[in-house]
Fold this sequence. Notes:
Number of strands: 12
Number of helices: 14
Protein name: Pyridoxal phosphate-dependent aminotransferase
Structural class: alpha/beta
Keywords: Aminotransferase, Pyridoxal phosphate, Transferase
Oligomer: single chain
Largest sheet: 7 strands, mixed
CATH topology of the largest domain: Aspartate Aminotransferase, domain 2
Shape: globular
CATH superfamily of the largest domain: Type I PLP-dependent aspartate aminotransferase-like (Major domain)
CATH architecture of the largest domain: 3-Layer(aba) Sandwich
Order of helices and strands: HHEHHEHEHEHEHEHEEHHHEHEEEH
Subunit structure: Homodimer.
Strand content: 5-15%
Radius of gyration: 20 Å
Pfam family, one: Aminotran_1_2
Mean pLDDT: 96
Strand order of the largest sheet: 2-8-7-6-5-3-4
Bound molecules: pyridoxal-5'-phosphate
InterPro entries: Aminotransferase_I/II_large, AspAT/PAT-like, PyrdxlP-dep_Trfase, PyrdxlP-dep_Trfase_major, PyrdxlP-dep_Trfase_small
Amino acid sequence: MTDFSRRVEQVSISGIREVFEAAGEDAINLGLGQPDFPTPEHARQAAIEAIRAGDADGYTSNKGTRELREAISAKHARDNDLDVDPEDVIATAGGSEALHLALEAHVDAGEEVIFPDPGFVSYDALTRLADGTPRPVPLREDLTLDPETVEEAITDDTAAFVVNSPANPTGAAQSPADMREFARIADEHDVLCITDEVYEHIVFEGEHRSPLEFSEEGNVVLINACSKTYSMTGWRLGWVTGPTDRIERMLRVHQYIQACASAPAQYAAEAALSGPQDAVGEMVTAFQRRRDVLLDGFDDMGLTYPTPKGAFYAMPKVPDGWVEEVLDRGVVVVPGDAFGQHGEGYARISYATGIEELKDAIEIMDDATRAIR
Ligand code: PLP
């Protein structure tokens, strides 16, 4: 009998998949974590041209093409007022690989990683795969992560904490003051802050700032991706940036598990990052309109929720049996406890779906809510 590793036996296939599989074929899917918009045409064309010219046939440098890393550096100057050396960037297979590199390079066996609960499912799983110990912490009433909660959870065994703003699954966004606090905590306690900013551009209220901007001691690494911003989830292109010595350690992992990010995707990403940004604004406007329609629907249903300020998720409190009732009636939503124990009593509803479908789903959710009240 094959003996599986202890690490892999500690993780299971995400609960979100199970919900999808339980739903009928005609179900309206409000469970998806990807934008329903096309990848911008100029990004697609850049990949096609690179393939036709034979430029994307071989390995690139382990860190990614110089041109892509320069485009990422220019993006950080433009959007974050950050001076990023292209040498301090690794292009990765999505934000997922970047998270994996950060944990693999910084967590020793048994060391603790603090992350939001409810939070993105990979934080727990990737911590376990790095042989670390997950330390999920509860959120404020508005579903943001309180820097004080993080600071209190730090022990001598803490290797890192994860900040995610705007957040999956809550749609919550951290204030600039919180982001500054996270940088201070990382510096003062000498623990790593991993800031997951894949939803950076999908914000409706407030200003997105990065803890990396406020970091003074080199204890912050930033993760981002083209996946959500440019509707490029299938391309698998993200990146990590941070202090040179940390990038060098993460490169050791990346070199052996990935060699380099997919070359055609690197060409597409370079074009997406440096070309016209109109598609991003149009997508955000559409998401905001859908969010407002959804929140009006929750009001009519009598559901309470913190107003989501970004990403494309809402997380209302729902009565017992609500998720199952909604699913039975043909709308897929994800139970909050799929994202951690403190998600219990909530549901994650993605509005990365067309407005007409969303309106149909709201009617069905409304009927389901009445039926179980
Ligand atoms: N971080 C968060 C918060 C996410 O929601 C996701 C994807 O859903 C990722 C990272 C990973 O994104 P990618 O598709 O770029 O690997």
